[in-house]
Design a protein that fits this description.
The complex is a heterodimer of chains A (287) and B (268).
Chain A (H helix, E strand, L loop, with lengths): L2 E10 L7 E11 L4 E6 L5 H8 L7 E6 L2 E2 L7 H7 E4 L12 H11 L4 H14 L16 H13 L5 E5 L7 H18 L2 E6 L2 H5 L4 E6 L2 E6 L1 H4 L3 H6 L6 H11 L11 H18 L1
Parallel strand pairs in A: 3-8, 3-9, 6-7, 7-8
Antiparallel strand pairs in A: 1-2, 1-4, 4-5, 9-10
Helix pairs in contact in A: 3-4, 3-5, 4-5, 5-6
Chain B lengths: L15 H4 L2 H17 L2 H19 L3 H8 L3 H14 L5 E5 L2 E4 H27 L2 H11 L10 H30 L10 H7 L1 H24 L18 H23 L2
Antiparallel strand pairs in B: 1-2
Helix pairs in contact in B: 2-6, 2-11, 3-6, 3-11, 4-6, 5-6, 7-8, 8-10
The chains are: A alpha/beta (287), B mainly alpha (268).
């Protein structure tokens, strides 16, 4: 399922003192099955972008096409769109409300008008695919840890079987272990369910390891759009807008500056380690 | 959507009204409310309209922004209007059916009440639009200071008010976020009958309450951690002081009140 944004503009509170232009002429194409990272500083418009994609916000100007259909057509079914483009918000506390975790996950599919059996089946499936421990299924969601709450929240959206899953800062407020767990889970979902995943974050480190395409947002516009290998060489420009490339990029550039012939395009620690070993071996041979 | 609620929200602008001492604005609002309920006749109405228009103009708050705030009370206005229109006994009866009748006094009352309510909201919201919650409670605390002597906990009341006001925008924003999070899961807050609608609110209200309680708890903790013990012996970084602008405004307010009273007593 492809999403196309064509010259989309969006402003908050137009015509008042609080007027903010959140997006400026954003054009993007999101094909099927990609794993995309959207990166930007606070206020860069990344959250606005995600809410436009499932119709929670309406663009001030420009058009959005989902599967070739203009979502601003008068008879377009917005509710249906929200089932297909699932959006998980930053704070799980904003959506957990039921008496048990299982019931909470049922909320989405229930709203799709499915019968009870199908609803429960989907909830069960979703909770399983996010690796939520079975003994907690029928416990209240309010006592869970941050990481577990997030799993329930993701399952709550996943249970609607969306074709595109958007996650807004899914790692905010988690400790490093929890962060790796959630990101690993997202990556696993991408592999196993074959859905398009859009991961919104302000941390390069988080996304560099997983995504195949990076969209860097700055002040409401797309600054870079490409694979991590294409984007990270611009680390100086990234720094200027308050972002940073992964630490590996810096290390590789430093090594190269000191004369070691390494590939500066390495994005993960594993790649970098292999490449440094290779370079050192070459060095040894030459001597 | 929910962001359109403008009652009670501060509107930043650089105007003489914004710079007034909050006590003056509180006093002006009080006098304005009294005037609204004592005025009689076209002349009095004209005086009040002129005063309100002048205040709005000087404040640099766009009128359209203020009128948007009236949306919240449309239903109240409607009910008030209808009740006054249909249930007021009067000398000249134009139309009647069972307990309902349309009389001259009824029409007069209906118009008067609706106008009064609109003016009431516009005038009082002008105060909150031009005064930050902090200034407002500062002003209130200072103005009510003498009550301390008869053991009214003025500081505590002011603090509660300022916290309540401070949390309005936070909770509105929170509501907006929760609504979106639930709408993303297919929740529907608009359609259905009244019972259905009330039931649909549950996914919104529970997270909202949970977060409000959590915030209250956090705030209490933070205040305690900074040794907050109430108002005794507490000094202000920016104590309120009157200047010439405030004196002139006090004078204007008194002239305004006098005009309204004169109109009531001497003009038909």
């Amino acid at each position: 399922m492809s999403i196309i944004l064509d010259k989309v503009n969006f402003s908050y509170s137009e015509g008042t003192a609080y007027h903010i232009q959140a997006l400026k002429d954003v054009s993007l194409e999101i094909p099927d099955g990609q794993f995309i990272g959207v990166i930007g500083h606070t206020g860069s418009g990344k959250s606005t972008l995600t809410q436009l994609m499932n119709g929670l916000l309406r663009a001030t100007s420009g058009s959005i096409y989902v599967d070739g259909e203009d979502i601003y057509d008068r008879d377009y079914n917005m509710k249906e769109l929200r089932h297909r483009v699932g959006l998980v918000f930053q704070y799980p506390d904003h959506q957990l409300f039921e008496t048990t975790n299982f019931e909470d996950v049922c909320f989405g599919p229930k709203n799709q008008g499915l019968d009870r059996k199908e609803v429960e089946l989907r909830a069960y499936e979703a909770l399983r695919s996010v690796g939520f421990p079975e003994e907690l299924y029928f416990q209240p969601p309010f006592d869970l840890s941050g990481g577990q709450k997030r799993r329930v929240a993701i399952a709550g959206v996943l249970a609607m079987k969306p074709k595109v899953l958007i996650l807004d800062e899914p790692t905010a407020g988690l400790d490093p272990a929890g962060r790796d767990e959630i990101l690993g889970l997202v990556s696993k979902m991408h592999r196993e369910l074959g859905i398009t995943i859009i991961l919104v974050s302000h941390s390069m480190e988080d996304v560099a390891r997983y995504v195949e395409r990076l969209i860097v947002m700055n002040r409401g516009s797309v600054m870079f759009d490409g694979t991590p290998k294409e984007v990270f060489p611009h680390y100086k420009e990234l720094e200027e807008v308050g972002l940073a490339a992964p630490q590996v990029t810096y290390l590789m550039h430093e090594l190269r500056r000191f004369g070691l012939n390494v590939d500066t395009g390495a994005t993960t620690v594993k790649e970098a380690a292999a490449d440094i070993l290779r370079a050192l071996q070459n060095e040894g041979q030459r001597k | 959507m929910i962001r359109d609620i403008t009652i009670g929200q501060y509107y930043p602008a650089d105007s003489a009204v914004h710079k007034l001492d909050p006590r003056v604005k509180l006093f002006a609002t009080l006098i304005y409310i009294i005037a609204l309920f004592v005025f009689r006749g076209i002349a009095g109405f004209a005086v009040i309209t002129a005063a309100l228009a002048a205040a709005v103009h000087i404040s640099k708050v766009p009128l359209s922004y203020m009128v948007k705030g009236l949306k919240a009370i449309v239903i109240l206005l409607f009910i008030t209007g209808i009740f006054n229109l249909l249930f007021t006994p009067g000398d000249v009866v134009y139309w009647s059916m069972g307990p309902f009748k349309l009389t001259d006094t009824g029409i007069q009352n209906a118009v008067l009440m609706v106008v009064r309510l609109i003016y009431l909201i516009l005038g009082t919201s002008l105060m909150t639009l031009t005064t930050t919650p902090n200034q407002l409670t500062d002003g209130l605390e200072k103005a009510l200071g003498p009550l301390n002597r008869i053991h009214v906990p003025v500081h505590v009341i002011a603090m509660m008010m300022s916290i309540a006001l401070r949390f309005i925008p936070i909770l509105i924003e929170e509501t907006d976020k929760i609504m979106k999070a639930q709408m993303a899961r297919g929740a529907d807050f608009e359609s259905g009958n009244l019972l259905q609608k009330a039931k649909n609110m549950i996914p919104l209200l529970i997270p909202l309450f949970v977060s409000a309680f959590r915030r209250a708890d956090d705030l209490a903790m933070a205040m305690e951690a900074r040794c907050y013990t109430g108002g005794a012996g507490r000094t202000k970084m920016k104590p309120l002081r009157y200047n010439r602008r405030d004196a002139v405004t006090y004078l204007c307010i008194l002239v305004f009140l006098a005009l309204v009273v004169v109109c009531r007593v001497f003009l038909p």
